[in-house]
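Our preliminary data section would be incomplete without showing what the modeling component actually yields. Below, a chain of 60 amino acids is followed by its predicted structure, encoded as C-alpha cells that our downstream tools consume directly.
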Amino acid sequence: MSAPDDATSRVRRKRMEIFAFLFLTAVVMPVLAVGTVGSYGLGVWIYQMFAGPPGPPSRH
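Predicted structure:
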C-alpha cells in the first residue's frame, strides 16, 4: 500500500534535485563569480590608492 506514496516522494525528490541544480547554476554560481571578481578589483583599486599605479618609478 505504500507504493503510491513512494512513487510520489520519488517524483518530488527528483523535482527538488532539478530545482536545486538549476538554482545553483543559474543564481548562486554567477553571484559568486561576480562577487569574487568584484572584490578582487576593489582590493586592487584600494591597494593602488596607497601604493600608486603599477609601472616604473617616475624620474624627478
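Residues 48 and 54 are 8 Å apart (CA to CA). The chain has a mean pLDDT of 91. Preliminary results of this kind motivate Aim 1 of the renewal.
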